[in-house]
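Homework-ish question, so no full write-ups if that breaks the rules, but can someone show me the predicted structure for this set?
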Amino acid sequence: MIKLTDVSMMLAAAGRSVRILEGISLSIPAKQTVAVIGPSGSGKSTLLGLMAGLDRPTTGSIMLDGTDITTLSESSMARFRREKVGYVFQSFHLIPTLTAIENVAVPLELSGERRAGARAAELLEAVGLSDRTGHYPVQLSGGEQQRVAVARAFACRPPILLADEPTGNLDSTTGTHVIDLLLALHRDYGTTLVLVTHDAALASLMQRVVSMRDGHLESDSMPDLTDRSIAGELRP
Amino acid sequence: MTQFMLNMAWRETRAAWRHFLYFLVCIAVGVGALVAVSLFGANVEQAVTREARGLLGGDLEIRLSHTIGPQGMAALESLSNRDFSITHVSELVAMAARTEQIPMGGQPTQIVELKAVESGYPLYGALKVEPSRPLPELLTPSISVCSRSGASPVTSPTTLHASRFTSDASCHGAVVQESLLIRMKLAVGDRLKIGQSLFIITGIVRTEPDRTANAFSLGPRVLISQEGLRAALLIQPGSRVRERYLVKIPASMPPEPLMYELRGRLASESARVSGYRDAQPQLKQFLEQLTRYLGLIGLTALFVGGLGVATSIHAFVREKLNTIAILKTAGADSATVIGTYLLQALLLGLAGSLIGLVIGILLQQALPWVVAGFLASDLLDQLGFTADLSGTAIVPLAKGVALGLLSTLLFTLWPLLTIRDIKPAMIFRRDVLPPVSAEGGDTVRNWVTRLTKDRVKGGLLLIIGLGLALLSIWQAGSWRVGLMFLGAFVAAVFLLGTSAWMMVRFLNRWPRPGSLILRQALGNILRPGSQAVSITIAIGIGVMVVVTVSLVERSLLRQVGDNRPTDAPTFFFIDIQPDQREGFASLMRTRRGGQNPALIPLVRSRLSALNGKTITLEATSEEEARKEQAVEKDQRRKNWYLSREYVLTFFDALPKDNEVVEGQWWKPGQVFAKPLVSIEAEAAKSLGLTVGDTIEVDVQGVLITTEVSSIRKVDWGNFSTNFYMILSPGSLDGAPMTYVATVHVPSSEEIALQEAVVESFPNVTAINVGDVLDGFARMLDRLSLAIRAVALFCVLSGALVMAAALAATRYRRLYESVILKAMGATRSVIACSFAAEYAFLGTIGGLLGSGLASALSWAVLATVFDLSWSLQPPVLAVGCLATIALTMLVGFLSTYRILGQPPLSVLRHE
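A: Not a homework solution, just the prediction itself:
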């Protein structure tokens, strides 16, 4: 489903180039749930962003559902993302001028869904916010905002859901609620779920845990041994 | 404390200078426009003063509208005995005709502005002719030149009347403007028939020091000698001519005593005597007014730019909330913080003004090109005008910097005042600050109550208002014009602001559009703190100024062009002598299928006394001259009516488009005990005349006393001959009279008719109404081009304000576009929503700006030109569409870089 081959990412900062990711190869089969853990600055959020095609790696290829997204044009990438990838941010990133229901409707409208409004209402009901549809983001609590964000990410029923510290800005009770929501989507629709987290307890809920340090893969609880490059790297 | 402010101001500027780019450019553009206009004005004034003697033609000028009488001649002769040089110049319009058929075409006849001079001409200033030989040599060429140019004048008469001057053995030369050669397809060395005489074209005149700077001329200049003019037999009793006697006095002698003396001695000739110091008063006035109004348009650009400055500062303060809160936590009070940022703003204002100076200096090199076009004479060449910087430039330059700095101060005070409301607790929680309301948001009543409660704000508003008023008065150079300007500016800002605000309110209540693109676009405009209102004001004012210029120009053109009745005359034939009347009428009958032309008698006169009180217009002593300086506008208007030449006529019946508003028109068969006069209403009002008053007119020395029997309203725009004064039949018997004929012919016959008249009646001048109107239209076009060129700076300022406002929202736009991209929005979806937003802003700005322009043009037409107004959809539509194109372009340029940002790099920083 997701296959990264020798992905590196350099960023220019203050005139010097900084290596954020180096030689990452990782293969995630469909319907798997994966947690990416690691200290701050280890490159896990960048890795997730690259999987969503939010930026391009400096080198390497990223295959999503059989398509090499590093070769797609910006517009094709945007269309591809609509169909295949849902993304949940740590700080929600709802559009402040749109109401909850309008925020959820955005991806549906972008893909030309006619019943965008009705479908968005269903999604909000599914995340337990049917009484908050007309509220603006500032009128919602953090947990509510994140649930709207999850509804938005899943609006087009993408096969892949990526979540960047989805509970990082939430208290534990609210966080659990959001995680339950994500796991329910995996269970009900077979969605591939990759989430970045600091939280060991949360990581343990995933089928597989990948840990990162200084832009490298440090360990993988379930290395895909059929992939020789990874196998080679992991063997002592 | 001050050291801290200075340090802090410098540090902040160093860190955020990019942020202030728009601030700098807004000030620079406004100052640039102002400096360009005032530098041009100063240079022109300097040139006019320097060339004053050349412009008048002498130290003194004696001007008459008829040939001078024996008494006057004696007075002039006594002058030459007193060591003064005198030269005689005659100016009149006449017809020039080609002597040979030229197969290539070109006009066979052409109206020209004839100028006959004597050997002393010019007394002052330089006459530029080609070839550069002494003028007498060109105007009175040797016989050999005459014979070289083909046959001798005696042997090649190709026209019937040429045989008349076979007796005249002398040979006359003419120096002409190049345009005559082009129009008639002639070259130097060819011959020209003017009146009853033949002239050899011996040269081309480039510039002439004393050509009256009129907005338009009737035809190209032809310079001939006085002998040549006499040979042409053009000046006959009652002919339209301007006789000028130019006097040069020794440099050590002041001209005034002689001027007063001559005014006394020549009073009976109704001559005008003027000194070089008040040469060309109309030209001076015209240039003064032109620079004044162009300057006010420049000030508009600066004030619109001021709105951009305010926007930049507003955005800057919002961005600096944390810094300001930290400064306050560290112990700085509001005054220190405000002082710091004010100092910073003034430093930037100074930098902007200095850039503006450079723009202005560069620009004023171009302005003369534009201005030169609408003065028929090469006025700027004539003046020896240069766009170089000289000592006089210091005043306009210093004024430019001062205006730039003061505007910066006035426009930054208000947004900086919000610093007072920032609490140190801001560092911890953003929502401590009450939402900084943009112009929208709250009602007018709340605003007023807040102002009255808050003394500082109220006082500041007063200071800003007062400051702006002073700036306007300073630039306008008059209390009245300055305050009117500011009033109009404030009214425009208020109207644009409230209309835009109401539109936003209205749209806010409307259900949201279904399309994501439109919703996003509208959301950006309607969001709290959106800059839509200030963008609308800035764009709207620029549009208003430019569209108003177009609307007024259109109305004027329509007045002279489209409004022309289909039977409007094609020609006015002037200077028809009484003995030519029958012949002329019969020529017209044969040419026009038996139709008689309308022949109207004319007598030229001046006012001599009103109700028995003699009119003395020109001061005959120094004391009177001082009094004259102090006269009011009404008096100047009255003086215009007192001093002008009146063309008198007599009619049995009231002419069409005339309406008696007071008194009675004479009845058929009425017997007149004394001459009666019917006077035009405006003239009667200005002269203070009513029915029963007496007017004494001077017809070339003969005084006629008439009694006002009626007052008429006249429709001056009716394309026929109209008169201020119409006398009762018989009153003008025996006066030197000419006739004017108004003739309508199809355009295909114009040239042939003109040729026939010139051939049979060489002294009669044909004025082609269409050509005159075309000339007027051309002049108007160039004038409005000059005004529009400056007005474009207002639009530029408006565009900058919009760019500044968009720059202030750049981060928010970037953020939203990135989220939308993460949701799968393509670049084109985001671009479309931006485009829709800018198009919408442009629509509001364009509609409101054009609407206001309609109102303003109505005011200008009604008050200045006394013309009716009409809706002009094409101009308004072009205005709106151009505005939309402009806002989309500006928006695109300000935000296109956002479109290419990869989402991750933006979101990482969030």
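Now go work out the reasoning yourself. Hint: Residues 150-169, 428-442 of chain B have pLDDT under 50 and may be disordered.
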